[in-house]
Amino acid sequence: MPLPKAELHLHIEGTLEPELAFELAARNGVTLPYGDTGELGKAYEFEDLQSFLNLYYELMAVLRTEQDFADLANAYLARAAAQGVRHAEIFFDPQAHTKRGVELGTVVEGLWRALGSSEANHGVSTRLIMCFLRDDSAESAMETLRAAEPYLARITGVGLDSAEVGHPPVKFREVYEAAAELGLRRVAHAGEEGPPAYIAEALDVLGVERVDHGLRCMEDPALVERLARERVPLTLCPLSNVRLRTVDTLADHPLPAMLDAGLMCTVNSDDPAYFGGYAGDNFDAVRETLALSEGRLRELARNSFLASFLEDDEELRAR
Ligand code: ES4
Ligand code: ZN
C-alpha cells in the first residue's frame, strides 16, 4: 500500500503522456512535428526550465475540447490514485489555452467533468489553482483573473508559473491583491531557477501561503530560518529538479538538509509526464536515493495534508 499523500504541485498540462498526445492529435486533426511516440520521446532531454517549457507549450496544441481536458484529468487522477494520492491541488495555465483560441470555459468545464466526480471515481478530492504565466504581462494576468470570475466556484486559488528569471513576483502585486479581494488562496513558484529574494518577495508582496519549489532558499540562511519559523510550506519536486538540472543528481538534492533545517517540505511531481514520475515515484526516488527514514517519509506525507487547502474535517478524512 503506497503512503497516503496529498499532491500540491501538479500542472495538469504536464500530465499529458506521449500516447494521449498522439490520440488527441488524431482526434482533433492536429499535426505534431513528431512522427510517433518514439520520435517524440527523444525530445524529453532538457537543458533548463525554458527548454522544457518549449515542448510543454508545443504539445498543448492537441488540447482543444472540453472532453480533451476531461480525458487528461481523468488519466492523471487514475494514476495519482494508484500511487496513494488522496487529494490533489491541480494547477492549470489558462493563458496557454486562451492564446491558442481555446476559451477559458472550455478548460474549466472540461477539467470539472473529471474533478467533479473524482472522489466517487478515484477516491481523490481535488482543488483547482489557476496559474498566471509570469513571462506574459501583468495586464494579461489581470484580464485572465477578470475572465475567471464566472468560474470562481470551481477555482480555489491562484499561482504563478512559467519562466521565472527576470519576472519577479512584484510584477504581479496588483493581480494578487485583486485575487485576495475575490477570496482566492495564493501560491507562487519562487526559487526554482530564480534567486532567494524572489521567495521573500512572494511572501511579502504577493501574500502567498505556500511557495512552489523554494529550493534556492538554501543559499540564504536567514531566509531558511524565517521559512522554518513561519512554517511556510515548500512544494518540492525532486525528479523535476533533476530533469531541469536545478540539481546535478538526485543524490545532491537538498531535501534532507531542508528537513534537518526544520523547513516544512512536501514532495510533489510538477510535470510527471515530462520528468519521469508521479507523486509515488517521487517518494520512492527520495526514499531510495536520499535514504530518508520512515519517520521522515511520514513527516512529508503529513505535511502534504497540513499544507493543503482542505478544511480541517476534510483533511482528517483524506489522511
Ligand atoms: C513548470 Cl517546472 C515548472 N516551472 C515553472 N513553470 C511551470 N509550468 C509547468 N511546469
Ligand atoms: Zn511547477
Automatic annotation (TrEMBL):
Substrate binds at residue 271. It catalyses: adenine + H2O + H(+) = hypoxanthine + NH4(+). Pfam families: A_deaminase (PF00962). The keyword Hydrolase applies. Keywords: Hydrolase, Metal-binding, Nucleotide metabolism, Zinc. Its EC number is 3.5.4.2. GO terms for molecular function: hydrolase activity. Binds 1 zinc ion per subunit. Its cofactor is Zn(2+). The active site is at 192 (proton donor). The record marks 213 as: Important for catalytic activity. It comes from Streptomyces coerulescens. The lineage of its organism: Bacteria, Bacillati, Actinomycetota, Actinomycetes, Kitasatosporales. Residues 4-316 form the Adenosine deaminase domain. Catalyzes the hydrolytic deamination of adenine to hypoxanthine. Plays an important role in the purine salvage pathway and in nitrogen catabolism. It is an enzyme of class 3 (hydrolase). Transmembrane segments: none annotated. HAMAP family: Adenine_deaminase. This is Adenine deaminase. The keyword Hydrolase applies. It comes from the Bacteria. Belongs to the metallo-dependent hydrolases superfamily. Adenosine and AMP deaminases family. Adenine deaminase type 2 subfamily. Zn(2+) binds at residues 9, 11, 189, 270.
